[in-house]
Amino acid sequence: MQEISNKFPTIKERILYVLECKGIVKDKFFTKIGMTYGNFTGSAKKTPLNSTSIGNILLEIPDINLDWLISGEGNVFKKNQIISKVASPGIEYSKIKKSENSTIEDLRKQNDNQRNDIEWFKKELDKKQEMIDALLSGSVTIKK
Fold it and tell me: For the whole model, what pTM was predicted?
């Protein structure tokens, strides 16, 4: 990512920029860091962040370049950093695998249900089209 210098004069504006770049939902992000979107709008945008807030931001976006975040100088993201998610020591792989399989099965069921719904709507649409065609042809009359 190219250097962006002084384009975003405040830390809060730089954070909003990163959220946009990464496609992160603002409300969810701010909830995770213990703040609200209101802290990043209007005149509140010009107020400083405390170290706890900055720490929480770094926990949520570990690839952000701290130098850029603080000063606005340099690259937005750390260069050549490989970020991998590793399961916590207390979580067993088999539990993770079971959870993934359960999620996949739930999605398959949901997909099947949606396919059934689509088929039902298609049939209903065909019935309505037959009624319209019959009305237009004059073979059916409507009683008042």
Answer: 0.51
